[in-house]
Q: What sequence folds into this?
């Protein structure tokens, strides 16, 4: 059930009405049923994998919790009898037990994800290796089903497990409440990846009807549909046309692809998140924000703090930090300090952990070399600019007023967005060498005249549609900027007439200008496949 | 404490670490800084800061970082 | 506080009303008008303009609305009739149109052209829209929608056609403004007059089919059509119009003939009788044998009217003054359009 299908609208509307008709203590049960139905409709067989993840995570969580309690009891009982050293070693021993259980849970669930999502890619690469060494027989690439949203719910569940291990949260006792945390449907297809401490208690708490929650939530949903249907799906028509024969659309078309894909993925992804967060808000559930105006980022590092935030913090908290501060890494750092000097030694953990994190981030986005190269290029940009910090400092010392200038910030933001856009084309062109060649063609193929000779009108959008796309994109960014100090909905909230008119207007605009229905290809949210 | 401030100042000479209490919340220390910092602290104070201690409350001010070091040193 | 809530509710109500009104206007604006081109799209809705009852109702595809002329039936035999046909009208669409009409009036005979028994599954979205959009809301329309939808379609777009036609915003033309709230008449009791002449030059090649059996769905709808006619006490007459294209397979003909025989229905294959009817394939078709032009349609109507009078007991209504008045107007308009045509004779 796509967010943009009539079925989903009906489903969400019924759920919302039912949610507030139900007694508050039962609201979470309705949500659970709705989530399971949603998942069932996507593919009954997928449900098995979701249930495996939910039940294994639940069990390990409970075990760790029980172990922790037993440890506390023992410690209290033995307060007098044990020396400090004794208590310490007992604690360490118990923690090690919990760590082994954690490891088991992680291996099982990430193993499932790896097998389902990456077997094909792995076998493909093995075949290439075999081929390179002259082998004639190759392995069959198995066709495994990829459960919807598996990357998202696995990450969310594993963050819960690690948080229980780290004693940041105590394990959920109610198995069905835990199942709801794993399967909560609005965020199943494309995130955000929530933390148990934020989301768990909210999901199961009862929520009284609040006109403000419902209005604000649905207004955000509506705006999400505007972005998605009017902008993203319209831009997608041209993108699809360009991807039909990527090799023949060179030069200017590559630049067009970079810009259009930037707009498309922004509108599609943030629009989808608006629908997810808005629908949740209408039910009184506040999800973590996943975006914070990424197009204003002045550097790549900042960009990744503002784009797909919950994925970024997940990798930071559960990959980057553990990896960089773990004992072997710190030992390696010390070793390098002694042998290659301070400068190298202190960089070792940051560099190795950054590379590993971005490798995995790339892999998470998709099973393909293009995604890995994409991740590593991001990493390269971040590390190079990190090394350039002294250079920047000198530069700003010479031009002290530049750092305060809005124009300069604009230039930096444009540069960041463009750079991210260039790298991102790896995920639409798919083929790494081809992408590199196409990047080069921007400087060698001078077909920029095609912009004005009508050639761009052959890509699926007529003149009126192009103009509409440009205007709608400008409106989208203008509205986003307008809401920096105070959310647009808060501004509207004070003027009921303006609020009602705005909702009516946006609704009608979507109905007329949305790229939906026959004649427009219904497209999946791009992040669905991850 | 002084040694810690030296490490911090080397990282960001332009920040007044003695007074600020929003190092993480305001994004003054990013994840790369944190790791560099931890590496230096581990080396200088012979402690080992584990990943689960990397939470904003422990890194928002020089005092908080110092408290963390002392806590780990005791344990 | 109280005031704020009131204002909020009032704004909400006003905005909702505004949306509904604008929605209706947009629907009227965006819906294709089928006036200056593809006039067959406007045929189905014209039925509701009728003010007098009919003795004979035709249902079927282009083989009825371009091959039979109710004007001729009236002028020569005093038979009142109406053709409810649209392009590639599928058998279930004919059934539901019949269902709708039989609830509104009581004819003596229903004529169904059997060509559409070759299609057992939904075919083409554009033709579906032309058959169904023109229907008023009723359970018949809902039935037609459910039976006709192709995989890419959603039933809700028939309920709210704006959801289907909104993308026409960038191709609106003067026609959409001119015919915002009204339509010109395009047919004569459902007959679409064609005045071109293009002789038949070839016969359709015989291509072997995998299966010559008429699809079961079609036989089921034939049953439903027969049953509904029995229910209302109306005679069902099956016909195959004299169109050379597309090829009407003998095997299909045999199955329809056997069905008619088994249920005591009349079945006329006019294709086999075209010589007897007097159709001149040099002059009586406007598209090389797919459909008849007005001269061919008149010949066929003359022949069929005779059958209806002699074998099916239909009687002239010409002595009814009210009917005569109504039909005189129709005949005059028909004659005026035909007068503009260049006759091949």
A:
């Amino acid at each position: 059930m796509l967010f943009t299908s009539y079925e989903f609208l009906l489903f969400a509307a019924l759920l919302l009405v039912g949610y507030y008709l139900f007694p508050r203590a039962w609201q979470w049960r309705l949500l659970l049923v709705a989530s399971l139905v949603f998942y069932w409709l996507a593919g009954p067989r997928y449900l098995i994998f979701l249930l495996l993840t939910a039940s294994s995570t639940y069990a390990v969580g409970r075990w760790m919790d029980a172990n922790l309690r037993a440890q506390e009891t023992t410690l209290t009982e033995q307060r007098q009898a044990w020396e400090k050293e004794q208590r310490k070693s007992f604690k360490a021993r118990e923690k090690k037990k919990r760590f082994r259980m954690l490891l088991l849970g992680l291996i099982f669930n990430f193993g499932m994800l790896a097998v389902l999502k990456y077997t094909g890619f792995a076998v493909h690469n093995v075949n290439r290796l075999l081929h390179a060494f002259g082998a004639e027989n190759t392995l069959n690439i198995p066709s495994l089903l990829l459960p919807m949203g598996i990357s998202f719910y696995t990450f969310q569940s594993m963050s819960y497990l690690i948080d229980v291990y780290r004693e940041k949260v105590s394990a959920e006792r109610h198995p069905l409440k835990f199942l709801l945390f794993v399967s909560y449907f609005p965020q199943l297809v494309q995130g955000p990846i929530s933390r148990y401490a934020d989301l768990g208690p909210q999901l199961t708490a009862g929520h009284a009807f609040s006109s403000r929650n419902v209005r604000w939530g649905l207004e955000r949903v509506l705006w999400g549909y505007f972005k998605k249907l009017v902008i993203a799906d319209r831009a997608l028509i041209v993108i699809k046309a360009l991807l039909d024969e990527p090799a023949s659309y060179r030069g200017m078309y590559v630049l067009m692809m970079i810009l259009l894909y930037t707009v498309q993925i922004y509108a599609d992804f943030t629009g989808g998140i608006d629908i997810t967060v808005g629908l949740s808000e209408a039910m009184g559930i506040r999800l973590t924000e996943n975006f914070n105006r990424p197009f204003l980022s002045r550097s790549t590092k900042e960009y990744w703090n503002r784009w797909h935030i919950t994925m970024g913090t997940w990798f930071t908290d559960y990959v980057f930090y553990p990896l960089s501060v773990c004992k072997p890494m710190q030992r390696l750092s010390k070793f390098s300090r002694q042998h290659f000097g301070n400068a190298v030694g202190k960089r070792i953990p940051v560099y190795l952990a950054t590379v590993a994190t971005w490798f995995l981030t790339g892999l998470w986005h998709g099973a393909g070399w293009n995604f890995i190269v994409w991740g590593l290029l991001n990493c390269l940009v971040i590390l190079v600019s990190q090394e350039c910090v002294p250079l920047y400092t000198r530069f700003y010392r010479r031009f002290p007023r530049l750092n305060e200038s809005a124009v300069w910030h604009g230039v930096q933001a444009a540069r960041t967005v463009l750079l991210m856009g260039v790298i991102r084309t790896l995920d639409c062109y798919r083929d790494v060498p081809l992408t590199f060649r196409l990047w080069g063609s921007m400087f060698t193929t001078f077909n920029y005249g095609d912009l004005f000779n009508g050639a761009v009108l052959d890509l699926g959008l007529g003149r009126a549609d192009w103009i509409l796309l440009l205007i709608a994109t400008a409106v989208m960014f203008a509205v986003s900027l307008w809401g920096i100090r105070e959310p647009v909905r808060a501004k509207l909230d004070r003027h009921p007439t303006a609020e009602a008119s705005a909702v009516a207007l946006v609704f009608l605009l979507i109905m007329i200008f949305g790229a939906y229905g026959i004649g427009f290809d219904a497209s999946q949210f791009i992040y669905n496949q991850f | 404490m002084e040694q810690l401030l030296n490490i911090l100042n080397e990282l960001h000479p332009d920040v007044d670490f003695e007074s600020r209490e929003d190092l993480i919340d305001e994004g003054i220390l990013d994840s790369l800084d944190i790791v560099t910092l931890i590496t230096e602290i581990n080396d200088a104070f012979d402690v080992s800061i584990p990943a689960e201690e990397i939470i904003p409350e422990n890194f928002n001010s020089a005092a908080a970082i110092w408290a963390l070091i002392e806590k780990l040193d005791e344990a | 506080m109280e005031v704020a809530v009131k204002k909020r509710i009032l704004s909400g109500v006003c905005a909702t009303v505004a949306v509904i009104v604008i929605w209706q206007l947009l629907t009227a604006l965006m819906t294709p008008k089928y006036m200056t081109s593809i006039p067959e799209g406007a045929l189905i809705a014209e039925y509701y303009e009728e003010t007098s009852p009919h003795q004979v109702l035709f249902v079927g595809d282009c083989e009825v609305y371009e091959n039979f002329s109710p004007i001729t039936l009236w002028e020569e035999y005093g038979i009142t009739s109406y053709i409810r046909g649209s392009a590639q009208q599928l058998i279930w669409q004919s059934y539901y149109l019949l269902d709708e009409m039989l609830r509104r009036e009581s004819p003596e005979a229903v004529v169904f052209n059997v060509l559409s028994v070759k299609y057992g599954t939904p075919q083409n979205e554009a033709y579906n829209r032309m058959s169904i959009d023109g229907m008023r809301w009723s359970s018949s329309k809902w039935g037609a929608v459910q039976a006709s939808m192709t995989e890419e379609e959603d039933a809700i777009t028939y309920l709210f056609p704006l959801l289907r036609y909104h993308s026409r915003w960038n191709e609106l033309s003067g026609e959409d403004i001119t015919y915002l709230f009204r339509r010109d008449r395009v047919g004569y009791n459902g007959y679409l007059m064609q005045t071109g002449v293009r002789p038949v030059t070839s016969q359709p090649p015989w291509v072997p089919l995998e299966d010559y059996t008429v699809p079961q769905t079609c036989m089921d709808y034939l049953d439903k059509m027969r049953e509904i006619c029995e229910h209302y006490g109306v005679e069902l007459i099956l016909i195959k119009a004299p169109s050379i294209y597309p090829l009407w397979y003998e095997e299909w003909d045999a199955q329809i003939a056997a069905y008619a025989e088994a249920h005591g229905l009349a079945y006329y294959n006019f294709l086999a009788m075209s010589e007897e009817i007097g159709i001149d394939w040099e002059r009586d078709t406007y598209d090389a044998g797919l459909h008849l032009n007005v001269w061919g349609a008149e010949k066929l109507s003359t022949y069929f009217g005779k059958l209806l009078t002699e074998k099916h007991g239909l009687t002239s209504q010409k002595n009814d003054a009210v009917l005569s008045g109504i039909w005189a107007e129709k005949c005059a308009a028909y004659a005026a359009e035909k007068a503009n045509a260049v006759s091949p004779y």
Remarks:
- Chain C has a mean pLDDT of 93.
